[in-house]
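Hi R.,

Here are the chain sequences for the assembly we discussed:
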Amino acid sequence: MADVTPALRPRPQRLWRIVSEPLIRQNPVTVQILGICSALAVTTQLATALTMAAALTAVVVMAAGIISLIRHHIPNSIRLIVQIVIIAALVGVIDQLLRAFLPDISRRLSVFVSLITTNCIVMGHTESFARRNPPLPAMADALGSGLGYSLVLVTIGALRELFGSGTLMGQPVLPTVEQGGWFEPLSLMLLAPSAFFMLGLLVWAVRSWRPEQAEPLDFAPPLRAEEVLR
Amino acid sequence: MADLNPVRAWRRMLALPNESRTKTLIVAFLVAAASTLLLSGATVLLRPIQAQNRAAEAQAQLAALIGGIPGMTDLLQAAGGQLSTVVIDLERGAAAQGVTPENLEEVLAEGSNWTQLAPGEDLAGLGRRPDFARIYLLREGDAIRLLLLPMAGAGYNGTINTIMALQGDLSTVAGFAIMEHRETPGLGARIDEPAWLAQFVGRQTRDERGQLRFAVARGPAGSVHEVDGITGATRTTNGISQMVRFWLGPQGYGPLLEAIRRGEF
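And here is the predicted structure of the full complex:
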């Protein structure tokens, strides 16, 4: 192993760093605001959010591994097409598997499984990382961002299902008024806007906890009226 | 002489500069071929399981459709818990000779058992119509109490498959279920929302003179023959209107309904 440069040698600590980095510090959804379209659409229930998270993680890890394996032989002029074809084939296989073994959840996810193909997280990590790194680190990086995405999806999915229908994974947790309990379900939680609110609150919470994630302002806010008049 | 050893040829290809046209073409072809193989392999291997799922789901939808009609569960229990399944000859409006629910699929695999529809008759946008259809009946004594009629028609993105339940008077809708559709999520796909489907119950498909009158309205329903439209899903809901009119009309179950009315079925 003497001919491998130290930076490329897959040491466990280094791999762990690659995997853990995107969980919170570099989370693809809350920090980079990537892949939020599907994150918002499939989070009305925890079960769909979990399935979507698992599907995306599986696709991004496999795509990163395959692309990293053939990275020295991808002609630059067609590299994006090659990547998309590989990702699309993997997504197609996952979609077929879901249809066969989880038909009910697959129907609820509708088009969003197929749309993993165009998910920025998958494309971004194959294009920027897997294309330049050996398979092990590439798959570690993909796994990390897949898990980071999953973390956000599961958090939002759990909160929306809990407050929107008083259940978790379909099991009643908060007794709703309809069933003689005290909890009045917040129907807003089941509608798309609530996903934006939850994601916004989550980003706010994470950035208050870790202020270094906040981006600098793009432009200075205008002076307030009393400051102008003074 | 050219070197024909495949291993060496493969190495030579890999050693080509990435930007060479030959390598670009070869890599593109190989990636496409491998992806195709993977995807078609998965599709073919998993098809039987998916077909089973679909059949189970259709059964469940049928049960839910009947369960949603007041009084039908009791009647079904009295009839032995089983609907009778009949294959009918659409043209003659009578039970088909020699076609059973079991061999219906094989019979319909043959093109000669389909009728091409002229553009003027083809309300549902199907192009052609099978000569045989499987329907479900529930009788009380001799009288037909419930008639379940499968219908298909063109939606916005593909064929919509539905079942309409008619009461014994052959005009009142007892229930309506969407078995399969590929409409746009959030717009056309709202046709399978229970709240929308519930409106079908009690609608009259014919007026007092026996004219077909059913339609999905544009906006709120205006009469007993209409159900509310769905905003942003005009093509889908028009497809449903046309489908119901086609299948209850002379090209669809019309002859059968006539025969039942005359008491010949």
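Residues 135-165 of chain A form the longest helix (31 residues). The first strand of chain A starts at residue 167 and ends at 168.

Let me know if anything looks off.

Best,
T.
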